[in-house]
Write a structure and sequence with these properties.
The protein has about 280 residues and is an alpha/beta fold. The chain has 12 helices and 5 strands. It folds into 2 domains: about 190 residues, Rossmann fold, CATH 3.40.50; about 80 residues, no CATH class. The longest helix is centred in the middle third of the chain and has 26 residues.
Length: about 280
């Protein structure tokens, strides 16, 4: 049984979503770059269902001429691939193209970053194994004509670093341009961050802070705070002051309203009827 709209809401969260809308609109005025909000509650308390219902409500509100562009991201699903930057960019590109718009600028900027990341990785591998995977790949592809001589000669590590730094800046500029020409707000709904490997969860937070810190972008991180704290302490040690650490990434923490007895009763009745049928 899939509950994806507030018409099927059994937990009475529609009023909360409206308060959250107003809260975000106000808080955006008080941050220089992106606004990052943590939606905190225990595992299994309805965060994913709330995000689905809220997304549907935001996208179907015909009375709102300035609807936010909503990008849904499941951090746990991308954990396997190991790079949150490209996972988030991929979600943006998919959303842009679904709207019938071109995402070429964003894709090209992301590819430039990826090319430098590959170059750095190949330099490290070559140092320790004597094998240059980039050169091997180029040989296998018979050095395509598109690869000019300047790109076939591997530059030094410092030059690659400078190039990747410039590519990152170009990517951030492309993100800023996309956000600025979009609707009044680009809303990223990030779910399942607390289920990720500790290193990936930390990398996800770092990526949001350093690459997506652009005015007009809003990130809502749905997570169990205690699980994130355990991830951070696994990465940095048990002595970590998590409250202070988390403030580096999150501007505000908002608790999801707890399920009350009447909500549990509605859930039980609905699911019993569903499964009996």
């Amino acid at each position: 049984m899939n509950i994806s709209t507030f018409d099927d809401d059994l937990l009475g969260l529609k009023d909360f979503s409206q308060r959250l809308d107003k809260f975000i609109s106000t808080e955006q005025e008080f941050v220089e770059g992106s606004l990052v909000i943590s939606l905190t509650s225990k595992f299994g308390s309805g965060k994913t269902t709330f995000l689905q219902m809220w997304k549907d409500s935001l996208e179907s509100d015909e009375g709102d001429n300035e609807k936010p562009l909503v990008i849904s991201l499941n951090a746990w699903e991308s954990d396997y691939y190991g790079d949150p930057l490209f996972a988030i960019i991929s979600g943006m590109v998919e959303c842009i193209e679904k709207k019938g718009n071109s995402a070429d600028t964003l894709v090209d900027a992301a590819k430039d970053v990826g090319a430098f990341a590959t170059a750095i990785g190949s330099q490290v591998v070559a140092k320790f194994t004597g094998i240059d995977p980039v050169a091997a790949g180029e040989t296998a592809k018979k050095k395509k004509a598109a690869r000019k001589a300047s790109t076939q000669v591997a530059p030094d590590i410092f030059s690659i670093y400078q190039g990747r730094r410039d590519a990152m800046k170009s990517l951030k500029d492309a993100i800023q341009e996309f956000v600025s020409v979009s609707t009044s707000q680009v809303l990223f709904l990030v779910d399942e961050l607390d289920r990720c490997r500790p290193d990936y969860a930390i990398s996800y937070l770092e990526t949001i802070k350093h690459i997506f810190d652009v005015k007009g972008a809003v990130f809502l991180l749905a997570a169990d705070r205690e699980h994130l704290e355990k991830s951070a302490k696994t990465a940095f040690g048990l002595e970590l002051d998590f409250d202070e650490y988390y403030r580096r990434f999150v501007h505000r923490e908002v608790p999801l309203p707890p399920i009350v007895d009447s909500g549990y009763e509605k859930l039980v009745l609905r699911y019993v009827q569903y499964y009996l049928e």
